[in-house]
Amino acid sequence: MLHTRKIIAVALAAALLAPAAKAEIAFDVIGGSEISFEGLVQADGNWFSNDIVDQNGQALNGKDTEFELRRAELVFKGKGPGAINWVVGHDLKAKKWLDVNAKYTIGGNSNNYVQIGQYKQPHSLEELTSTKHNDFIAKASITNGMTVARRLGVAAGTGDQNWSLMGSWFTRELTRNGNHGVGYGVRGTFAPINAGGNVLHLGLSYISRDTDGDALRMRVRPMADLATAYLVDTGNVTNVDSAATTGLEAMYISGPFKLQGEYMQTKVSGVTSARDFDTDGGYVSALWNVTGEKFGYKGGTPSLGLPDSPAAGMFQIGLRYDTINLNDGSFAGTPPKGTGVLGGEQDTWTLGANWYWRSNFKFALNYNKVTSSKFRTNVGNVNDDPSSITARAQIYW
């Protein structure tokens, strides 16, 4: 608790010191590099309404509520020397490295570059969008369950304001005992409409990673990040050789309104064909800046500026439908026995509101209604339909 209080105190001081029109704190120019300091601190509260499974059961505290520091990210960035930009970030809460890389810009165009180190892989519109501007508190099921996030590797990208292409070869995470496995990924985007505050974005990505015969487990929480239960879960599937995910994405922006959706399919290849299985899922969401601020678009992802009126802040409301299917098998008999992978299906409606106040604060409130179904040996499919209210207070600079 004392460690958490110190982090929040440092975050408040940094946020209050940050200039109103500029998020990061400028340090100095050292060795030809303009160094700045950024941070993100998020504190969450979850209130659970259970159906069958206790969403907070593994906390072993007998409560249907949970409060926790979610993220405490500190990031140093450098511009220069020359065409080189670098970043070193660490999450003190999760005790893991974030972006730690250097990027060389080619021809003075930020869209043309070569990158080395740890970075987000070219996959998923939601994953590549800045965490501080998440539309909803919990990311979509496919984003949490199917994407490959930050890994060590080498990447190259090119594009302009209407299209982008990025390719990457990667290995393990920089953090000790993190995710591992060699892989590669590619993402391409195209915006046939990008003018006058209106954007139509289309994207396609493919990412493949080796698991070297290890076990693979796919599972997602019931749209509450502090929940300890997973209503859909494949369990450890052994003797898996590789996993490949194809992603389709689309987004439409019209001034203060944003509509976006993604669909993903993951094909898992086993050491033998008997271990093969497929999963899929997707989401569609709508977000409206009630106070009128317009969304931006750069590098194949949406962007969000400061409130037009810092004292009043920027207010958003949003709605999302989310689905994931971790079943690729069947069951029969009395009592029923299953074959293949029967991880379950989960659908969720999320209603959310966000308030960005001044330059450094955000408050979010979500209501999540989940419907799920999962096979249990000797029982059959069991439906579990809980709900939750989640809240977040955020400081960033």
Automatic annotation (TrEMBL):
It comes from the Bacteria. Keywords: Signal. Residues 1-23 form the signal peptide. InterPro entries: Porin_dom_sf (IPR023614), Porin_O/P (IPR010870). It holds the Pfam family Porin_O_P. This is OprO/OprP family phosphate-selective porin. It comes from Aquilutibacter rugosus. The lineage of its organism: Bacteria, Pseudomonadati, Pseudomonadota, Gammaproteobacteria, Lysobacterales.
